[in-house]
Design a protein that fits this description.
With 141 residues, the protein is of the alpha+beta class. It is 39% helix and 16% strand.
Length: 141
């Protein structure tokens, strides 16, 4: 029960509850601030997982683009010969893979092959972590 407008509280029987002085009230501090500590503990782990996921995504994108360029160059080698195949591969590669090594030649069975190799461009280069991506496509005549 309460008095007029909800204050001061009234006990059953009509008596008012004794008011507690403000300075004697204690605030509970139990788990105050624990959320920021949990966030600070898990945030580096989240960044690591997100970085690994992005690096993996870019590796798959680079491999797919290299495969496409190798197929285009092998087709061009079958039509025009080896001379125009390398320029076709370089034109099919995106700009961020322009340092790729492109090798075009005959496969010994009457067809042509194209091999593209690139040092994988890491977002955060790590010493001692050299990753080479390579794709080879053979095209019969």
């Amino acid at each position: 029960m309460s008095g007029p407008r909800g204050w001061p509280p009234v006990r059953p029987g009509g008596r008012e509850a004794p008011a507690v002085p403000r300075r004697t009230r204690r605030r509970r501090r139990g788990d105050r601030g624990s959320q920021i500590l949990e966030f600070a503990a898990y945030f580096p782990l989240f960044l690591l997982v997100a970085t690994i996921a992005l690096e993996t995504f870019f590796a798959f994108i680079a491999a797919e683009r290299m495969e496409h360029a190798a197929r285009a160059a092998a087709r061009a080698a079958g039509r025009e010969g080896v001379s125009g195949a390398e320029s076709t591969a370089r034109a099919a590669l995106p700009a961020w893979l322009n340092q790729a090594d492109v090798e075009v030649g005959g496969n010994g069975r009457g067809g042509y092959y194209t091999e593209i190799t690139v040092d994988f461009p890491l977002m955060f280069p790590t010493p001692g972590f050299d990753l080479d991506l390579s794709r080879r496509v053979e095209m019969p005549l």
